[in-house]
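Exercise 3.2. Students should predict the tertiary structure of the chain below and write it as structure tokens, then compare their answer with the key that follows.

Predict this chain's 3D structure.
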Amino acid sequence: MATRRDPHELNAASLSERLFATRRLTADLAEPLSDADATIQPHPDASPAKWHLAHTTWFLETFVLRDHLPGYRLHDERWPFLFNSYYEGEGPRHARPRRGMISRPSLDEVRGWRLHVDEALDRALPRLPPPALELVELGIQHEQQHQELFLTDILATLAENPLEPAYGELPPASRKAAEPLSWLPGRSDIVEIGAPSEGPWTGLATGFAFDSERPRHRALLHPHEIAATPVTNGEWLQFIADGGYRTSRLWLSEGWDWVRREQVAAPLYWREDGTAFTLAGRREVDPSAPVTHLSYYEADAFARWAGARLPTEAEWESLAASNDSAGGNQLDRAGPVMPRPGGPLFGDVWSWTASAFLPYPGFKAAEGTVGEYNGKFMCGQFVLKGASCATPRGHSRASYRNFFPPAARWQFTGLRLARDA
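Answer key:
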């Protein structure tokens, strides 16, 4: 006769397996890097690889071990000042634009800290109360976000080196013919969007969701269609050839100011010789692959040039709700990634939407310092939906709300067109 196990024990065991698989993947992503590689900060929006390793460890040590394990002592009481990101409730911190100045602790010392915290978590998990287990779940999801940032930030770092070193190797581009543009009919109805309303961070029973994905609520959709595939490099080359970056009427006012001020004439990392810098070094642009490293301004201008528009967040989520979020080209193991030809809604590139990142009706931030996670950024940002080639598999879902300011383009960001039906 089978013995009935305690639900708390089952939750802790499941969390332990996923937590340490996530922690191992982060360590594996950093394996090819030298201490110098891991210390450089290419621009203020990106962070050094070493900082990502340390910050994700600080998060778990602070909100799980320090706050929920009586008698726990911090590995080094000086380091929280260095590796707190933006949590005002945790006090003063090192300035974000100067993270690249943190030459010490060394990469090996940070790895030692990670090992120390992992061992403490392994011992503590079986006896942590449910609120602490929910924070472990949040810590897993938080680290998965930083795995994607790790890859995009190391790409930005290596791109600053005139030698253009590769992070790793990738097989040659398939260069298969791009699929003809086709359209998927969207719902024209009152729909529900957002995650099921069962409290912030809940992931132990109904599936994890960030607080910004709640409450679930109704939205009215008008007749529309969404492209079955993302915009490709080949289509973007047509946009460039047609003077897309030189035609002011295609651009929002802020976008046109940005184009002129930054002298933008192509997606980030592209050159006029038809190549782009990637995690596998400089390669020829594959016309059939999804275009990436686009700002919201560029995505919006292209949509206008194509006689279409960007989908709204509600339109995209309604379409994606019946699709498998685990499919497509996403991060499965350590190593370089890049978008591949194809069309799944989840994978390759994040899709810019026309929707601002704003609170849903009835939104309430989580209690405590972790409530600073999303809510205070609900100004001046736009929502992206789906997943990219650098998103850890299993991390995304239809209700997921990625967000960045409109000029950001160092992430794997792209677009799908929408049009009124």
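Discussion points: The chain is about 35% helix and 10% strand. Residues 1-7 have pLDDT under 50 and may be disordered.
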